[in-house]
Specification:
Length: 320
């Protein structure tokens, strides 16, 4: 069904349970085995509290086979990323983005209430529960629409607890929060930043920060969201202080190439980016995103607060 650095995922028939399942077969290498054992532990914890089983993927079983940890999951549908890709990266409708965003934040709130931080939220780790879709005309082409908007989180191999600030690098690059890049220590809010990036991607069809290096990444943030606070730049750890000069980001002077500078220049401000893709409720979405993508982690909305935002609570049937 897919593979990653950890190993591969196989679709299997469970003869006892009489159902199709997904089995994650982990490479027989110590660090991947350790991550798999963390994942099993987290899944058991989540399963104990997620009575209805609709927040996170359900663990069916696990076993160790020839030094490969094998984790048996319920079988789910495609990831949000796969779905976007098969649609030619055409964005989801704002109403679907609202549904997906609400469930994503409910799952994140559920984890945070249990003092767990996912640390690797991205469209690849959010799966539709069903793989059924319908095709609808979309200009010259047709577009897939999921039959059900139900989603679940997967991949808890990097999940950690929130009992103290952490300093090591987490998250897949494009969804990584500024405090992680600057080495300021991170906690729950790093998940919230990732959610903000994901929502922009779902309504635009494109990765918000398409980059592979730290200085360019920070410059892109400034381009989309405005200048980084000086006090955060001043506290950057020794690995990140080279990105800062005289209390501001060393950009464009520090750019590795003209292409890098151009990639940053062509990014629009957050408001414009959303307006390009969203017709109704753009104002609410922009306001929500500004709360999720605040530089200062303590200023970012918590998951429960975000769920009370007008983007999710307003009466949507009054379409003008």
């Amino acid at each position: 069904m897919g593979e990653g650095t950890f190993g591969q995922v196989l679709e299997c028939w469970d003869r006892e349970g009489k159902e199709m399942v997904a089995i994650k077969v982990v490479r027989a290498i110590r660090k991947y085995r350790e991550a798999a054992m963390i994942e099993i532990d987290v899944l058991q914890q989540l399963g104990k509290h997620d009575r209805s089983g609709n927040r996170c993927v359900q663990l069916r079983n696990w076993f160790d086979y020839r030094n490969h940890i094998c984790i048996v999951f319920e079988k789910l549908g495609p990831s949000l990323y796969d779905f976007l890709r098969k649609n030619g990266y055409r964005p989801f409708s704002i109403d679907l983005v609202r549904e997906l965003g609400r469930q994503l934040l409910e799952s994140v709130a559920f984890m945070h209430d249990l003092h767990l931080i996912h640390t690797d939220l991205k469209p690849e780790n959010i799966l539709f529960v069903s793989s059924q879709y319908i095709k609808v005309p979309d200009g010259f082409y047709s577009k897939r629409l999921p039959k059900s908007s139900a989603i679940k989180l997967i991949d808890f191999g990097s999940t950690t607890n929130d009992h103290h600030d952490h300093s090591y690098i987490v998250s897949t690059r494009h969804y990584r929060a500024p405090e992680v890049i600057l080495g300021l220590g991170w906690n729950r809010p790093c998940d919230i930043w990732s959610v903000g990036c994901i929502l922009v991607e779902l309504c635009s069809g494109e990765v918000l920060f398409q980059t592979h290096e730290n200085l360019e990444h920070l410059a892109m943030m400034e381009r989309v969201l405005g200048p980084l606070p000086q006090h955060m730049l001043k506290r950057a750890d020794r690995h990140a202080e080279k990105y800062v000069r005289r209390g501001r980001l060393n950009w464009p002077e520090g750019a590795t190439s003209r292409e890098s500078n151009r990639a940053v220049q062509k990014l629009p401000r957050l408001q414009n980016l959303v307006m390009q893709h969203v017709d109704h409720s753009a104002g609410d979405l922009i306001d929500l995103l500004q709360g999720l993508l605040r530089y200062e982690p303590s200023g970012r909305l918590a998951a429960h607060e975000a769920l009370r935002h007008p983007f999710f609570t307003r009466n949507f049937h009054r379409r003008s």
